[in-house]
Design a protein that fits this description.
single chain, alpha+beta, Elongation Factor Tu (Ef-tu), domain 3, OB fold (Dihydrolipoamide Acetyltransferase, E2P), 6-stranded antiparallel beta sheet, 5 helices
């Protein structure tokens, strides 16, 4: 026999079902899931009062950090002659830029310098033997003309003295004028011979010498600039990173990054041999007074993701407090803090293989 529920009973039933569902939901939602185990155990402090610091692995350098190589000129890369991990020597070409325009400019200035030097040598070599022979010949011809004019004038003058009617005054004057003109030409030829024998004027030589020196220095500067189109290793080392390829346009600020709309940093990064590496730590300025004396500094490095700890050898302190850089990539990390860089060294080997740029945890004992 079916049971018929009245409206009031139906409301009580629905209310009971709702209460039961609410209780079940509250129980289920209030259950706390068991925490997931950490991906790796956090680095323990091996010292009773150790100072913690983030560290970044760097190549072992005599001073400073990794060598960032930038081009000194702008241009398009036409050839990359090294690869990552390659050992290079100082002066080895890392990559080449398109130097056609600069090479043509240097060749033009070289030709100008050679022309100026040739003109200077020409001035110093004066008088030219052929020019001296011409001047002597002109002097001989002028002397002959002067003697001939003098003889003609002398004959006219003696005839006039013997008989004034034998030679007209006009003819005598013309003969005298011809002799004066011939004598003036002889004087001019003599001065020209003396000028030819003297050679180039000393002021002309000095002026040409200055022009030749200026053009030679311009060529040297242009040729030196041409050499900058080949990016060379500033010292012995290992190529750690190459951030550009053939066809990329680079500037002294680096290579343009379309994603960041700015420079992508150095073109080539050089480091030292990977047998020994450095760790650069940054100690918060409020912890600087707690750093022990340098002769007794000891530290240990913990490799993230492993249980490996490595004792570190103290290298030195860079005595210049700088603004902190975000190494831990934590959004809440303060970036207005100033820190003191402290550098350590460790031996890199087959059992422990780290790479420059890797982040580690470091504890400095007190």
């Amino acid at each position: 026999m079916a049971i018929k529920l009245t409206g009031t009973k139906m409301l009580f039933v629905l209310a009971g079902v709702g209460c039961a569902a609410a209780i079940a939901a509250a129980v289920i939602l209030n259950r706390r899931p068991s925490p997931q185990p950490p991906v790796f155990a956090p680095a323990p402090n091996p010292y009773p009062q150790g100072i913690y610091a983030n560290g970044i692995v760097e190549s072992d350098q005599p001073s400073g950090s990794n060598i960032n190589v930038y081009p000194e000129v702008s241009g398009t890369i036409v050839d990359v002659q090294v690869r990552e991990g390659q050992v290079v020597r100082r002066g080895d070409v890392l990559l080449k830029l398109d130097d056609r325009v600069q090479r043509a400019t240097a060749e033009q200035q070289r030709a100008q310098a050679q022309a100026a030097q040739a003109l200077l040598e020409e001035l110093k070599a004066q008088p030219r033997p052929e020019a001296l022979q011409v001047a002597k010949a002109q002097m001989a011809a002028a002397e002959a003309s002067a003697r001939s004019a003098w003889d003609a004038y002398g004959k006219q003058q003696r005839a006039f003295d013997m008989d004034p009617h034998a030679v007209s005054r006009d003819t005598l004057d013309n003969s005298r004028n011809a002799w004066l003109v011939a004598d003036a030409n002889r004087t001019t030829a003599q001065r020209q011979l003396e000028l030819t024998r003297a050679g180039a004027w000393v002021f002309d030589v000095r002026n040409q010498q200055a022009q030749a020196d200026a053009l030679a220095k311009a060529y040297q500067a242009s040729n030196a600039l041409l050499d900058r189109y080949a990016l060379k290793a500033p010292r012995d080392g290992v190529v750690m990173a190459i951030k550009a390829a053939a066809g990329s346009y680079v500037t002294p600020q680096g290579v343009y990054d379309a994603y960041t709309q700015g420079s992508n940093g150095p073109i080539v990064i050089l480091g030292s041999s990977s047998d020994r590496l450095n760790v650069r730590c940054f100690i918060d300025e409020i912890l600087i007074p707690r750093i022990p004396p340098q002769e007794s500094i000891k530290a240990q490095m913990f490799v993230r993701g492993t249980r490996v700890s490595v004792p570190l050898q103290f290298v030195g302190i860079e005595p210049f407090v700088v603004p902190k850089i975000a190494l831990s990539d934590q959004r809440l990390e303060r970036v207005d803090v100033r820190v003191l860089p402290v550098i350590f060294r460790f031996q890199n080997g087959a059992a422990l293989r780290l790479y420059p740029g890797q982040l580690v945890d470091v504890y400095i004992g007190q």
